Amino acid sequence: MITGTIKNKIDKIWTDIWAGGITNPITVIEQLTYLMFIRSLDEQELEREGFENLTGEKRKKIFPQSATGQSMRWSKFKNNDSRDIYDVISLRVFPAIKKLKNGQLPDFDKDGNLIPIVDTENGSEEDNTAFARYMEDAIFLIPTPQVLQKIITGLDDLYEHDLSGLDMQGDLYEYMLGKLATAGQNGQFRTPKHIREMMVELLKPTPDDSICDIKTPRLIRFNFSSADFAV
Predict the structure, then answer these.
(1) What is the pLDDT of residues 53-108, one digit of tens each?
(2) Is residue 8 domain-resident?
(3) Is 209 domain-assigned?
(4) N or C, where is the chain less crowded by C-beta within 10 Å?
(5) Is a pLDDT exceeding 50 seen at residue 183?
């Protein structure tokens, strides 16, 4: 359940993005989703490292083990200077997540060029293409280092102090999507939750399907739990 404190913190992050010039609420949600996913990758890496330290059993790493690869981790860059954070995300992290393959991020050479991950026999076609297909047209739109730093700080505070240990990813999206119905923001209205759930139950869509709401011509985007962020 989203508390008043959590809503206030989300509203503060939202306001910071709007103040930076991004006024389309769909774009706001899109950019926040990218950053939340970036953070979740580092959370998964920390869990794998903790498992290794506890059991001694090696686990496949998400991030390259080079200095550049480790610099792409949320826990490594979140407290850096705003300009450095902006450069790391825009020039390294964002291009890398668009080329995520077999649960791993690509590395960069000494000139800053991305090194594509070579296909392996263990990687399925779906694993190798699905995420890249959905991300290939994505654009990083956070306008300035200062705005990005405020968002990073706000999200980190939210997850560390209010959402730690909780599976509330779906609730977060439900609250953010509710802003689409706010007068003067976008003129769009989301389909009520119980109607969406009924449609999903009846149609049983797959990740490759789109459902058109004929009454209001737009695509319905379904909300999922944090498990869907898993690599």
Answers:
(1) 999 888 899 999 999 999 999 999 999 999 999 999 999 999 998 888 888 899 99
(2) yes
(3) no
(4) N
(5) no
